[in-house]
Write a structure and sequence with these properties.
By secondary structure, the chain is an alpha/beta fold. The protein is built from 12 helices and 6 strands. A hairpin with a 4-residue loop joins strand 5 and strand 6. It is globular, with a radius of gyration of 20 Å. The N and C termini lie far apart (about 45 Å).
């Protein structure tokens, strides 16, 4: 049985990971804790506690630390992704942070468009369906959380992103037809970027390997990839190498079944044109 982290456990783990990133960034800049503290106008004990994961902090000090280290937003983006408190479930924090550091992300989407590619209208539509009783303000937070994550696609050197979309995802309809028209339009636009590859797995593909559900493979520099799988109410990051290897084989099989990039784009344009 997989143990699901509590919110408190996830918070502790996130602080430790942020501390490791801060320590690594400071080392690359060649600054001591005292020198960084002076440059960022924070106490040395604050730098030490952050690096050890003993405590969190507000966004403003992180901005100053980022500027002092000439980190170009790396620390700020990492903080925003997991500590901003906007639209982020506890169990997803590790994954959101890993996205910020990733060099390659491979995703197979069987039910929904991947979060990094979702439009605001799509985010609102899927959450209104899932939680019809929730206040509108909660959807605003979720939208903001998606935007924080999606900032990695605008970086000078974004991660290589390969997405395999089951065609059924594109055929789904919402009350407002414009939701899917805009979402597919966004996918077409993103598919033209050099480091983003989007392919459609035809609905006619017989008994393909992805029927078990969506999953995401995330790879960081100098570390083994891990796989993230999510259910209706929770998600889990799996790091056992044999498990990851199994998902990598599934992804390769799905890639073989998918339409080529240009044909996938044409299919998306065709589906978008059919929406009325």
């Amino acid at each position: 049985m997989v143990k699901v982290k509590s919110s408190e456990d996830a918070e502790d783990a996130a602080r430790l990971r942020f501390g490791k990133l801060l320590r690594k960034t400071r080392g690359q800049a060649g600054l001591s804790q005292q020198e960084l503290a002076a440059a960022a106008i924070v106490s040395q004990s604050t730098v030490s506690d952050l690096e050890l994961g003993k405590k969190g902090t507000r966004r403003d000090p992180v901005v100053r630390l980022d500027n002092a280290l000439t980190a170009r937003g790396v620390l700020v983006d990492a903080w925003d992704a997991v500590f901003s408190g906007v639209g982020m479930t506890a169990y997803f924090r590790e994954v959101a942070e890993a996205e910020q550091r990733a060099i390659r992300i491979r995703d197979y989407s069987h039910g929904l468009v991947h979060g990094l590619l979702q439009t605001e209208g799509y985010v609102r539509a899927i959450n209104e369906v899932a939680k019809p009783e929730a206040p509108q303000s909660s959807f605003d937070q979720i939208v903001q959380g998606r935007k924080h994550r999606q900032r990695i696609l605008e970086q000078a050197h974004p991660p290589a992103l390969m997405v395999l979309l089951d065609e059924v995802v594109l055929l789904r309809r919402f009350r407002d037809p414009q939701v899917m028209k805009d979402q597919i339009g966004r996918l077409i636009e993103l598919s033209r970027r050099p480091r983003i590859k989007i392919q459609v797995v035809p609905i006619a593909t017989e008994g393909h390997a992805g029927l078990g559900g969506s999953f995401t493979l995330i790879e960081e520099l100098d570390s083994h990839p891990f796989v993230y799988v999510e259910s209706q109410e929770t998600g889990v990051a799996l790091k056992q190498q044999e498990v990851v290897a199994s998902y990598e084989r599934i992804f390769a099989d799905l890639g073989s079944a998918a339409l080529p990039v240009a044909a996938s784009r044409s299919r998306m344009e065709e589906i978008r044109g059919s929406i009325t």
